[in-house]
Task: inverse folding
């Protein structure tokens, strides 16, 4: 081979070095020493291959005021060495004979900044693609001249234009792109960049996730993804969150998107882990398995919306897809990372409650309002108890600070063929209920990647094992804050629990803590991906995975926590749930290129199985807590067991064609089979077509210097839904469970009809989007308009009694339309060497309506759904305020018959959000990094004052049985004619006019109130310690940080948080943590 | 390039073919563990027989459903024998005969009736495709399912008139059926009972621990119900012979003591239903007996009924009781709380009724001596002298009166009798202020009319 590659070319940042001169004199100097001096005095990096100088003689040097060229010419005199001076670096090479041909080969290798070869990078000369790199990252092209300018580009990296000369093996290093348009985003079965993306994929990067001190992935996504609504159900640690992507599609089915972790659908999806009969403070939705994935192990989260992004997931993509990608190791030396942080959390957005004086004024006022005197009959507790006693029960119940502890250790490293990452992490959160209640997760994670030396074969193995423990009360204690402020002490003088004082009973909050709930949760996740490049362009890939999520829950209601006067018995519950999910998937990928055309084809097969099992034991009748603890002596024991299997298979394909990276077209299709449907209906076909035109690359736009990127894209397609429950198509019997059986025997009774109509529910979705980049992509704007429609949804329809069972899944004849606009605007407000400020503003404007529904008036949905209105529309009386003369709640009597009757009920608005989004601000100044994220939502929500008015009515009712405190809003009640108040006159009499009107209050449109808010959702400040401090200690990087979550909320929403909206559940917690991160 | 597109298309095509044919088996999953598919249920005798236990448990699981107190309470309230103590918007209209089609309790009765019919129909259709069921089991299943279907239709047709006649478990075929004529419903009842007579055995099916129970219908139960059906239809000769078959059967005899009639050991019982709940005895005991002598009973007997007892009638002392506030309540069942000895069962068919059926049939067959003899057997057990009635004109009112007393607050007998004998307008217009004859039939629940446009409402509603 005539061209012996002997030099390395590296040129990093184009920083100009001012001309300097060198003075050097010495005898017997080694070349490395000379190079060091050049570097020191002239500021050039000398790039050379040490091997070339191993046999070189030491030299004598005597140079004065020499420039670089002079210096090198002198020292290289007589040696077969040449040099090439770049801006800041000097390349030294061994001289080789020149090539005679005019077409000379130019060869090199493309690597990432950390030295990883990049396969498939494209090399263009004069805008004509001439080559792509092989698996080793190497390329070889024929060029016309000795010095050729080539452009090297690769997905997710900034393109580089470099001038290469023949005769060297050039190594071109690409930096991860800093511009939003060229970030790698994960899409279905592959990766792409926003530049080339055809569907709606929104990315949340690891940096944005891990700067939040919460333990739940779901909690980090709120406001960060256009089109994704996240609902926090309560502020109890470990609780589940709800997702809604692009609106409510379905009348009856769930809204959870498909959640895929590293290509593997997570077992149980976002379903509740906990189903225990006693309940837990985590509420109806319980805990979520998603929370078991440590945030620091996540590389990125992508949210896929619309048919073109999700159609390849076919049947399960109708509610959107959330792809979670876990971290991989990086090649290089062994790297240790330690991260430790700690902090506290508090319940915020709670209401001020009445103090004893205010409470008594309301209590007594209500009684007097009804013409009754306040005495030991009408308000016995005021006389029996110390009527001046005041306790802040809000503080007692939910005023505790929870501690947050996080620790993580990560080790990664490897060579070019094998990289690995292992980590262990811990996250613990205490609850606002105090007394040791809280939740923690511990996890171990590992990822191993190996490539064969030729890089044709690659294997990725990852495993995550998380285990958690939850200790909580068996119910959300928040509601107990409404205990009357003069409630007597919960313990008598002897320190024993008491349940009544002077004969008047009360709820003993202290005793509630005796009711314990404990859960052990595990999540085991294993995933293997193998790929093999059969020949250049064609690869075969296989995905195999296993996921097991399980929960073991125990709860105990001992005697000690119950009033002995009620002759209580103890109960004990146990529930075990497990979900196993198995996946086997194989696909082939082919990439074909010619001229400016590029075709990517993907085809594969997928098989999946999920099994879930449930067992529970309920023991009742314990007469001693000792026996309860041991589980002996129950008078009745009920057990239940169930197991459900689900299987799924699919064939899928995608064709992606691009012409000069400017005209793009994608067609995808999938044929799915699901065991949830009966014979003959198991398979369904789904498809999507999308196209894009990057018009900014057209010659007529290139003149416009301000527009650096412009793309218009559109797509249409179908997705499906099989989330209807298992075995609904078959005629099945369920077991009877009557206590005595019939003649001592249990039997079976028909539970469902055989339903051969049960088939895929198909959703149509379409979108059109415009992506623009201005001023060298310093401003990137993306605007999407989408319209999704669903008809013939499968819903459970009731049947006439004569059919024998209450109903059957059948087609819903209405058409539901979700449409909306999504905007995202990223601006690089300031980019300089020391200061960098980047903002991202997200905005979603959704709308949901039932477009048409033939014969609605005669369906079971009459009076509940309305054509042209949202599926969430609320029907009720129209509230017109408190009548200043009578002091009563007033409602519109539409049919003017003098009474409020069902004929006066009207659709009264909905709690759908009008718009929502977030504003992310990222600042970097020297060693300081500040991230501020604001979330906003605008729309109506359920009024907690109305809910409280019904559940915990204002103080006043006669007798000792219904005693409640309330929020300060109760003070604004009507007292005398002419008052303009928000609450009607107080009453003590259940048969008074005010009590009658109160019945209509919760069934009126007053249940909706403004729930808009602006929240300082997260703030993170990091400081990188100076290198000179760090290097002395042997560390390579050290950072200190402060993070806060839910720091402040601006809202007019009363009583509780506008997100949870329910005054009886714990509102989201404010969390503040401090920590340090060090890398060895 | 085109070559590759063709190749890829071929792959996709092959994949589609692959998944749509060869891999179908991969989608086969067992049903959820708490559910059993029809195929499994009818795969063996033992499994199939559990559908019968299921059917009776379903019958007895919901208290106040049609066959578990519903017909007794709501038939009693609608007639002139029962009144409710506490106002209740769903029960009052039965007592005042002002039932609206929106009444939820009425809808519940109607619903539960069809739920049971569906269960029976599912047993019959499940047997259709079953190949591993022995002839004996098949006969037992078919006989009991048909018996149950006939029993439910009997009450439906008497409460609502002609109702949709559903004999299939396929909702697509049954959901929109219009109402059949009462005659057609009776036709189906007779056919089902005739089949049940053929298929069922003379003895009672029971388990070891319940060996003396008469809680599964046998041939006599089918015959007894058939006797009642003929009797209601005025087929006197058939009613007479069916009743005689029971009366002549040595398995059955009148309990000499009135206190023994409703016991689980009663020799008078032809078919009883076993309560299935842990915390209660019969639904009658639970609902009619007051919690204590000072608490009022939920339901008390009307003055009209109480004044109808002849002096010296032991049924007034044995089957009626008074609490301290003077409210009289039905005391046929004397236990409200479950006892492990299972002393009382809900008695559906008993010999006392059969005597009275034969007595009335014999009047129409002009066998006055026989009629009087049957009537007096019942009277004599109640400690009453023989009836002075001897011929057609006075025997009939005497038997009707005897039925009112003997079968009081039992399975809606009085409500059905008043309608059957055509006395309803005459009697109730006296006892019930504002009585209108439309109230003789309950309304079809509103929800049914909206869900099935082919249904028609009973006249007057």
Result:
């Amino acid at each position: 081979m005539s061209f012996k590659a002997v030099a390395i070319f590296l040129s990093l940042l184009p920083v100009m070095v001012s001309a300097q001169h060198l003075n050097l004199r010495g005898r017997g100097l080694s070349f490395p020493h000379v190079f060091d001096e050049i570097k020191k005095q002239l500021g050039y990096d000398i790039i050379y291959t040490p091997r070339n100088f191993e046999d070189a003689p030491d030299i004598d040097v005597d140079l004065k005021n020499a420039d670089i060229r002079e210096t090198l010419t002198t020292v290289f005199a007589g040696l077969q060495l040449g040099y090439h001076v770049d801006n800041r670096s000097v390349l030294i090479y061994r001289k080789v004979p020149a090539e005679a041909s005019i077409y000379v080969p130019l060869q090199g290798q493309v690597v990432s900044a950390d030295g990883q070869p990049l396969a498939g990078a494209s090399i263009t000369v004069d805008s004509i693609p001439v080559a792509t790199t092989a698996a080793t990252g190497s390329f070889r092209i024929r060029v016309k001249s000795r010095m050729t300018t080539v452009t090297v580009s690769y997905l997710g990296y900034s393109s580089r234009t470099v001038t290469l000369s023949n005769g060297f093996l050039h190594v071109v290093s690409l930096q991860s792109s800093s511009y939003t348009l060229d970030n790698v985003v994960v899409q279905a079965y592959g990766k792409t960049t926003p530049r080339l993306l055809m569907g709606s994929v929104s990315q949340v990067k690891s940096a944005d996730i891990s700067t939040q001190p919460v333990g739940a992935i779901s909690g980090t996504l709120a406001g960060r993804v256009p089109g994704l609504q996240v609902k926090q159900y309560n502020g109890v640690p470990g609780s589940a969150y709800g997702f809604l992507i692009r609106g409510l599609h379905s009348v009856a089915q769930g809204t959870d998107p498909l959640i895929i972790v590293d290509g593997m659908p997570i077992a149980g999806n976002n379903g509740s882990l906990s189903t225990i009969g006693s309940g837990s403070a985590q509420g109806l939705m319980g805990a979520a398995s998603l929370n078991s994935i440590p945030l620091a192990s996540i590389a990125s989260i992508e949210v896929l919306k619309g048919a073109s992004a999700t159609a390849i997931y076919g049947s399960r993509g109708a509610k959107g897809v959330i792809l979670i990608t876990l971290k991989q190791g990086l090649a290089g030396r062994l790297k240790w990372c330690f991260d430790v942080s700690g902090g506290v959390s508090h319940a915020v957005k709670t209401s001020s409650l009445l103090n004893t004086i205010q409470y008594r004024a309301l209590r007594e006022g209500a009684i007097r309002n009804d013409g009754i005197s306040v005495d030991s009959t009408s308000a016995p507790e005021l006389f029996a108890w110390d009527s001046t006693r005041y306790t802040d029960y809000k503080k007692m119940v939910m005023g505790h600070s929870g501690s947050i502890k996080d620790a993580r250790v990560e080790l990664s490293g490897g060579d070019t063929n094998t990289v690995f990452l292992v980590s262990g992490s811990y996250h613990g959160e205490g609850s606002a209920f105090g007394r040791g209640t809280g939740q923690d997760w511990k996890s171990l994670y590992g990822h191993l990647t190996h490539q064969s030396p030729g890089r044709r074969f690659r294997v990725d193995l990852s495993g995550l094992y998380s285990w958690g423990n939850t200790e909580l009360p068996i119910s959300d204690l928040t509601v107990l804050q409404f205990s009357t402020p003069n409630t007597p002490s919960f313990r008598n003088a002897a320190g024993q629990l008491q349940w009544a004082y002077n004969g008047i009973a009360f709820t003993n909050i202290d005793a509630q803590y005796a009711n314990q709930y404990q859960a052990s949760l595990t999540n085991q996740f294993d995933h293997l991906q193998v790929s093999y490049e059969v020949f250049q362009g064609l690869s075969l890939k296989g995905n195999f995975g296993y996921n097991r999520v399980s929960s073991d829950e125990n709860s105990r209601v001992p005697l000690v926590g119950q009033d002995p006067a009620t002759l209580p018995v103890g109960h004990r519950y146990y529930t075990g749930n497990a979900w196993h999910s198995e996946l086997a998937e194989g696909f082939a990928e082919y990439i074909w290129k010619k001229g400016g055309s590029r075709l990517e084809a993907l085809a594969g097969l997928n098989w999946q199985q999920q099994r879930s099992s449930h067992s529970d034991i309920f023991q009742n009748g314990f007469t001693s807590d000792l026996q309860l603890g041991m589980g002996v002596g129950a008078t009745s024991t009920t057990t239940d067991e169930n197991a459900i299997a689900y299987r799924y298979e699919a064939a899928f394909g995608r064709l992606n064609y691009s012409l000069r990276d400017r005209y793009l077209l994608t067609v995808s299709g999938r044929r799915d089979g699901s065991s949830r449907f009966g014979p003959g209906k198991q398979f369904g076909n789904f498809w999507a077509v999308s196209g894009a035109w990057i018009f900014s690359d057209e010659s007529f736009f290139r003149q416009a210097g301000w527009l650096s990127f412009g793309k218009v894209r559109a797509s249409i397609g179908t997705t499906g839904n099989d989330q209807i429950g298992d075995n609904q198509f078959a005629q099945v019997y369920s077991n009877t469970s009557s206590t005595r059986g019939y003649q001592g025997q249990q039997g079976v009774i028909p539970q469902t009809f055989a339903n051969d109509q049960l088939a895929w529910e198909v959703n149509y979705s379409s979108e059109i989007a415009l992506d623009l980049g201005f001023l060298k992509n310093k401003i990137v704007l993306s605007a999407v308009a989408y319209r999704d429609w669903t008809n013939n949804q499968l819903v459970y329809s009731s049947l006439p009694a004569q059919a024998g069972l209450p109903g059957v899944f059948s087609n819903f004849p209405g058409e539901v339309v979700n449409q909306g606009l999504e905007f995202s605007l990223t601006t690089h407000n300031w980019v300089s060497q020391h200061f960098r400020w980047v903002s991202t503003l997200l905005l979603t404007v959704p709308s949901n309506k039932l477009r048409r529904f033939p014969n609605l008036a005669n369906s079971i949905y009459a009076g509940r759904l309305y054509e042209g209105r949202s599926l969430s529309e609320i029907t009720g009386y129209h509230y017109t305020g408190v009548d200043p003369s009578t002091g009563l709640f007033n409602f519109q009597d539409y049919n003017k018959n003098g009474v409020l009757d069902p004929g006066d009920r009207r659709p009264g608005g909905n709690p759908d959000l009008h718009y929502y989004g977030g504003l992310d601000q990222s600042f970097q100044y020297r060693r300081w990094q500040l991230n501020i994220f604001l979330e906003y939502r605008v729309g109506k929500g359920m009024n907690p004052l109305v809910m409280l008015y019904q559940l915990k009515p204002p103080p006043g009712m006669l007798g000792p049985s219904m005693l409640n405190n309330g929020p300060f809003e109760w003070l604004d009640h009507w007292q005398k004619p002419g008052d303009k108040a928000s609450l009607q006159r107080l009453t003590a009499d259940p048969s008074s006019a005010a009590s009658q009107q109160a019945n209509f209050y919760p069934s009126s449109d007053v249940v909706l109130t403004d729930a808009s808010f602006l929240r300082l959702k997260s703030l993170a400040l990091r400081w990188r310690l100076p290198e000179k401090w760090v290097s002395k200690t042997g560390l390579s990087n050290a950072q200190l940080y402060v993070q806060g979550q839910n720091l402040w909320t601006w809202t007019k929403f009363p009583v509780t948080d506008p997100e949870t909206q329910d005054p009886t559940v714990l509102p989201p917690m404010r969390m503040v943590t401090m920590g340090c991160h060090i890398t060895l | 390039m085109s070559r590759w597109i063709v190749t890829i298309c071929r792959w996709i095509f092959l994949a589609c073919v692959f998944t749509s044919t060869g891999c179908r088996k991969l989608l086969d999953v067992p049903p959820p563990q708490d559910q059993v598919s029809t195929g499994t249920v009818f795969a063996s005798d033992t499994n199939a027989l559990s559908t019968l236990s299921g059917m009776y448990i379903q019958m007895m699981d919901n208290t106040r459903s049609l066959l578990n107190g519903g017909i007794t309470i709501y038939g009693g309230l609608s007639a002139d024998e029962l009144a409710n103590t506490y106002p209740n918007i769903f029960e009052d209209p039965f007592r005042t005969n002002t039932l609206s089609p929106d009444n939820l309790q009425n809808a519940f009765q109607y619903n539960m009736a069809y739920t049971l019919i569906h269960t029976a129909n599912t047993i019959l259709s499940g047997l259709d495709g079953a190949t591993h069921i022995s002839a004996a089991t098949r006969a037992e299943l078919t006989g009991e399912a048909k018996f149950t279907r006939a029993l439910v239709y009997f009450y439906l047709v008497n409460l609502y008139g002609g109702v949709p006649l559903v004999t299939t478990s396929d909702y697509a075929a049954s959901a929109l059926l219009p109402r059949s004529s009462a005659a057609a419903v009776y036709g189906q009842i007779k056919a089902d009972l005739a089949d049940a007579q053929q298929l069922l055995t003379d003895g009672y099916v029971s388990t070891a621990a319940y060996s003396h129970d008469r809680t599964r219908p046998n041939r006599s139960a089918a015959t007894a119900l058939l006797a009642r059906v003929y009797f209601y239809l005025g087929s006197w000769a058939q009613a007479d012979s069916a009743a005689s078959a029971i009366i002549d059967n040595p398995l059955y005899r009148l309990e000499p003591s009135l206190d023994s009639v409703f016991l689980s050991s009663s020799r008078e019982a032809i078919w009883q239903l076993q309560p299935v709940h842990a915390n209660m005895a019969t639904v009658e005991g639970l609902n009619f007996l007051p919690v204590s002598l000072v608490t009022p009973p939920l339901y008390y007997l009307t003055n009209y009924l109480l004044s109808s007892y002849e002096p010296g009638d032991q049924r007034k002392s044995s089957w009626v009781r008074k609490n301290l506030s003077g409210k009289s309540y039905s005391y046929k069942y004397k236990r409200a709380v479950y006892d492990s000895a299972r002393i009382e069962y809900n008695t559906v068919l008993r010999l006392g009724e059969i005597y009275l059926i034969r007595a009335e049939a014999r009047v129409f067959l002009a066998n006055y001596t026989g009629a009087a003899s049957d009537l007096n057997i019942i009277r004599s057990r109640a400690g009453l002298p023989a009836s002075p009635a001897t011929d057609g004109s006075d025997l009939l009112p005497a038997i009707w009166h005897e039925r009112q007393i003997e079968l009081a607050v039992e399975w809606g007998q009085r409500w059905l009798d008043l309608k059957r004998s055509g006395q309803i307008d005459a009697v109730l217009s006296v006892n019930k202020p504002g009585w209108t004859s439309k109230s003789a039939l309950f309304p079809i629940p509103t929800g049914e009319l909206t869900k099935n446009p082919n249904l028609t409402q009973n006249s007057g509603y």
Observations:
- The first helix of chain A runs from residue 31 to 42.
- Chain A touches chain B through 69 residues (CB under 8 Å).
- The radius of gyration of chain A is 35 Å.
- The CA atoms of residues 493 and 889 of chain A lie 46 Å apart.
